[in-house]
Amino acid sequence: MNSPVPAAIAALLIGFVGVVALGRWALLHRTAADRLLNRALVWSGVGMVLLERGIAPRFGSLMHQLSMGCMLFAIMSAYGAAALWAGADPENAWRRQRRYHLIAAACAVVILIVGTPARHNGTLLGQTPDAWSALSALAFCLPAIACGRVMAGALWRELARADATGRERLVYGSLLTALAIGACSLPFSALLFGDAVLIEDPDLIRWAWPIFTVIVLSAAVLAVPLLDVLVTRAGWDRPRRRCRRLRPLWTDVTRAVPEIVLDPTATGRDEPEVRLIRMTVEIRDALLHLNRYAPQDLPMPATASPTERYARRIAHGIRAKAEGCGPANAAPKTMAPASRDFDSELRQLLELAAVWPRARAGADAETRRPTPAGASAGLFRRFAMRA
Predict the structure, then answer these.
(1) Which CATH number among 1.10.10.60, 1.20.1250.20, 1.20.1070.10, 1.10.10.10 corresponds to the domain 7-233?
(2) Is residue 317 pLDDT above 70, yes or no?
(3) C-alpha to C-alpha distances, 122 to 53, 113, 119, 140, nearest whole angstrom
(4) Cα–Cα distance for residue pair 5/10, rounded to 1 Å
């Protein structure tokens, strides 16, 4: 009895599903929905292994029927997660899930009972259009259709939300695509079962490939939050990356103006997003203070950008303050309005942080305090204005 999916391809796909299931079980296993989805992945992985009947052709018929039972438990686990998405009470999730598992077990027992003649003959349920195959298809398809209906409704509602992000739409759309692929195999199998279309399919490839495709596509979607957790734990998420880019600038300006440093224990939180906001506020306040110490007449390279000019002024302001000099200017007002957009302010500070090492090195290498031809403006004029 041959396997419906080539062994090399099946091994890769089963390995991928197994890795995602183990990773989610280790890192994403707190909420009821996550636990149910993780169980669905595990049951699906076991079902995929059993579908590869080539590893034990003598027991291929039994393995096929057991794989159908595993898929039923995976379907009912996914059904429980879909019920939570649809608004079911999470407090009673496991009580409901026990009923769903009983349904899966009852349908699996039906499949094993009606599959007894097929096991004796060494054939597969669904391979020949008979009453036993019809009963097994009914026992398998009814829970699958019920799960697909609830899950499709929940996913469609999420997809239709006006505030759904592009990433969320991609995830929900991918899951809906997986459901559509699984649903397409049902009418095709019905045509074959009813002798409307005569196609030889002794290994039930028409069932195996859609099942593998649905499981792998679903595992790929469920791997997205797992990757987010791994990226965050490794410190590669955007807030942490931005904090690292700002840290040299933040270290220098807060060392020069230590009184503006906020108490990190005031909020009791140290998430990357909170830390990034705190660093941004501290850098902004320090720049407002240090701008007063920047020399008035500091020569600038002709090719220097506004950001580089501002960085050089602040670097010399830090040096002047460290030498005990008083404020060199009163930071005169300008007509430019102050920006209240945090994202714009953060982008400007990241640009400043990028040129800061060169500006600091240049200020440290000079033995005298030059003065600029004019006050800095451009991107950081608002700091001078608000001082």
Answers:
(1) 1.20.1070.10
(2) yes
(3) 12, 15, 5, 20
(4) 6
